[in-house]
TrEMBL record:
Record-stated family: Belongs to the LysR transcriptional regulatory family.
UniProt GO molecular function: DNA-binding transcription factor activity; transcription cis-regulatory region binding
Sorted UniProt keywords: DNA-binding, Transcription, Transcription regulation
Record region (Disordered): 325-352
UniProt key word 4Fe-4S: no
Domain HTH lysR-type: 6-63
Keyword DNA-binding applies: yes
Native species: Brockia lithotrophica
Biased composition (Acidic residues): 327-338
InterPro entries documented for this protein: LysR_HTH_N, LysR_subst-bd, WH-like_DNA-bd_sf, WH_DNA-bd_sf
Protein name as annotated: LysR family transcriptional regulator
Length: 352
């Protein structure tokens, strides 16, 4: 391989080997044969005329030259993606082709229906093909090259060949059947755990006196998503923060099914507020607005792409997502102002 023949695919292979410290693990992550990865590294070292890795019995490690090269490679790929983003903003309505996206079910059911109409009206020549799964499945589809981008919620583990950009905030809330003791227990438990100010709906709990509020939550049936779901991971993190281990859980495959189950008295759950806002189903809801527990009710949606593989269609979609984020921030500010006004007028404050 000559130096001017080095392509982005070879650079991504190099970054993966550098991150994993293993030719075989890099091959697994990239869905390539180990021999293909080894040959790509060998040809890259030959083209550059330097050794990038020290080989050992337990894997490989970057040389000093390799460490310097890795820094420059990531910068090159990020600049390439940024350049495509700027170019797509100039292309505007002339874009056409197939845009294959992967998304978590929460995104696909409650977020994309808000984003796609305006995006497709602006770009009628783009054909969107969507794969839905949980967060883990959406990232896997991206890695398998079944999609060029993945829009997912929750934590996305860092990968050297993937680029994740936070695009939207997602706020969750504890949901329980209306009139049940669980909502009052949650308000009390959150307050005891440091929730200095609470937002609650359909909850008349100021006179609730039962002890062991967090114990009530531990004994409640929790409706959860399957392993691999971002919402499932956030729910388990809340249990850990509260120091509870629910005695019974019920796994359901969609947010809509969980919401209907809560309304029917089947159990309690952690649900995105956007799910509640889009439904006429009545549930009682509560979440801490301040204090150390509050961040556990907020997560980010990320647009994840393969580093250095951005394209004009994906960049245009990313702009549409960012525009939707701006609209949501404006709406959230209005909602917060109205919420504060209601609290001031009816005298309802935090649960004591």
């Amino acid at each position: 391989m000559l130096l001017d023949e080095v392509d982005f695919r070879t650079l991504r292979v190099f970054l993966e080997v550098a991150a994993t410290g293993s030719m075989s693990r890099a091959a697994q992550a990239l869905y390539l044969a180990p021999s293909t990865v080894s040959e790509a590294v060998r040809q890259l070292e030959g083209a550059l005329g330097v050794r990038l890795f020290v080989r050992g019995t337990r894997g490989v490690a970057l040389t000093k030259a390799g460490e310097a090269w890795a820094t420059h490679v990531r910068d090159i790929l990020e600049r390439w993606d940024a350049a495509l983003g700027e170019l797509s903003s100039e292309a505007r309505d002339d874009l056409s082709g197939v845009l294959s996206l992967a998304a978590s079910r929460t995104v696909g059911e409650y977020l994309l229906p808000r984003i796609l109409p305006g995006f497709l009206t602006r770009h009628p020549g783009i054909d969107v093909r969507l794969l839905l799964g949980n967060t883990e499945e959406a990232i896997l589809a991206l890695e398998r090259r079944e999609a060029v981008g993945a829009l997912v919620e929750g934590d996305v583990p860092p990968r050297p060949t993937l680029r994740k950009v936070p695009v939207l905030l997602d706020v969750l809330t504890f949901a329980a059947p209306v009139g049940g003791r669980e909502i009052c227990a949650a308000c009390r438990c959150f307050s005891e755990a440091g929730g200095l100010r609470l937002r609650r709906r359909n909850a008349a709990c100021r006179t609730w006196k039962e002890d062991d509020a967090c114990g009530v939550l531990a004994r409640a049936r929790w409706l959860v998503r399957e392993p691999g779901s971002g919402t499932r991971a956030l729910t388990e993190g809340l249990w850990q923060a509260l120091g509870i281990l629910p005695v019974q859980t019920l796994t359901l495959g969609s947010m809509h099914a969980i919401l209907e189950g809560v309304a029917a008295g089947l159990g309690v759950a952690l649900l995105p507020e956007r799910v509640l806002a889009s439904s006429t189903v009545r549930v009682a809801a509560c979440r801490p607005l301040t204090g150390p527990l509050a961040p556990r009710f907020v997560r980010r949606f990320h647009l994840v792409t393969r580093l250095g593989e951005g394209n004009l269609l994906l960049s245009a979609f990313a702009r549409a997502v960012r525009a939707s984020a701006e609209e949501e921030r404006d709406e959230e500010a209005i909602y917060e102002d109205e919420e504060h006004a209601r609290e001031g007028s009816d005298g309802k404050g935090p649960i004591p």
